[in-house]
Design a protein that fits this description.
Blueprint: E1 13-15, E2 19-21, E3 27-31, H1 38-50, E4 55-57, H2 75-88, E5 91-95, H3 101-105, E6 111-114, H4 122-129, E7 135-138, H5 145-157, E8 163-167, H6 185-192, E9 197-199, H7 201-205, H8 208-220, E10 225-229, H9 247-263
Parallel strand pairs: 3-4, 3-10, 4-5, 5-6, 6-7, 7-8, 8-9, 9-10
Antiparallel strand pairs: 1-2
Bound molecules: phosphoenolpyruvate (PEP) and manganese (II) ion.
Domain DAHP synthetase I/KDSA: 13-258
Organism: Thermohalobacter berrensis
GO molecular function: aldehyde-lyase activity; transferase activity
């Protein structure tokens, strides 16, 4: 198996030759749930650059539960991301949902994101597996560890082993939180695979006030980083505002995970 640990060294996934995930540093990936406008994405890019965060997230194609909800700006959103990333020297991660968009999006992004709902979209996995760009594979909301690793295997089998796993919570009977963030998978994955593991406490909890505590926990349990949603004005966000951090909260998160990282 391409993704099993065996005697392999920890995989360091290089992003665009200027940063990497899994090198021992704790990576913070931040940005809005969705790219909404030039003004919004530029203000976020500027702020995360001022915090020395190197990877900007932003959805252009949004997998919304309702077809009547904001679906994202599509390629227009990818163009805005690229423009903002260029100005502020950032790397971009963005979700692609359609295998036909993989090639078209190639020049706009640095990391392909495969969302929870598409973890077992095998046609999409094979398509990103044929590229030479890193892929972040989010855990399916009802996926077991084995199913998740087999999905990663589909990507690796096509020749691309630059894979980052992202725990984003699973569906359980508990509905106080949006999902149940399963942090036990971090040490489990560390023993089963050499791939880096990122935690998404935004979708994992669905509540702004739980994002920082669970990011601290992710650092304590040995994750390689976190991906969090941030917005200049979370109340006005077109999607997922209730789980987004404002700029001050993002700064606090960075400070607090750094303290934990120094202890572990
Ligand atoms: C996202 O990160 O933009 C997202 C839609 O998350 P998930 O696929 O984990 O629901
Ligand atoms: Mn979101």
């Amino acid at each position: 198996r391409h993704v099993s640990r065996k005697n392999r060294e920890d995989k360091v996934v290089k992003i665009n030759n200027n940063t990497s995930i899994g090198s021992g540093d704790f990576t913070i990936i931040a940005g809005p749930c969705a790219v909404e406008s030039e003004e919004q994405i530029f203000s976020i890019a500027k702020y995360i650059n001022s915090l020395d965060i190197e990877i900007l997230r932003g959805g252009a194609f949004k997998p919304r539960t309702s077809p009547y909800s904001f679906q994202g700006l599509g390629f227009e959103g990818l163009k805005l991301l690229k423009k903002a990333a260029k100005k502020y020297n950032l790397n971009i991660i963005s979700e692609i949902m359609d295998p036909r968009d993989v090639e078209k999006a190639y020049d706009f992004i640095d990391i392909y994101q495969i969302g929870s709902r598409n973890m077992q979209n095998f046609a999409l996995l094979k398509e990103v597996g044929k590229t030479d760009k890193p892929v972040m594979l989010k855990r399916g909301m009802t996926a077991t560890v084995k199913e998740w690793l087999m999905a990663a295997e589909y990507i690796a089998l096509e020749g691309n082993d630059n894979i980052i796993l992202c725990e984003r919570g699973i569906r359980t009977f508990e509905n106080y939180t949006r999902n149940t963030l399963d942090l036990t998978v971090v040490p489990i994955l560390k023993s089963l695979t050499h791939l880096p593991v990122i935690v998404d406490p935004s979708h994992g909890t669905g509540k702004t006030e739980l994002v920082i505590p669970m990011a601290r926990a992710a650092a304590a349990v040995g994750a390689d980083g976190v991906m969090v949603e941030t917005h200049p004005s979370p109340c006005d966000a077109l999607s997922d505002g209730y789980q987004s951090l404002d700029f001050e909260q993002l700064k606090k998160l960075r400070k607090e995970v750094n303290i934990i990282k120094k202890c572990v």
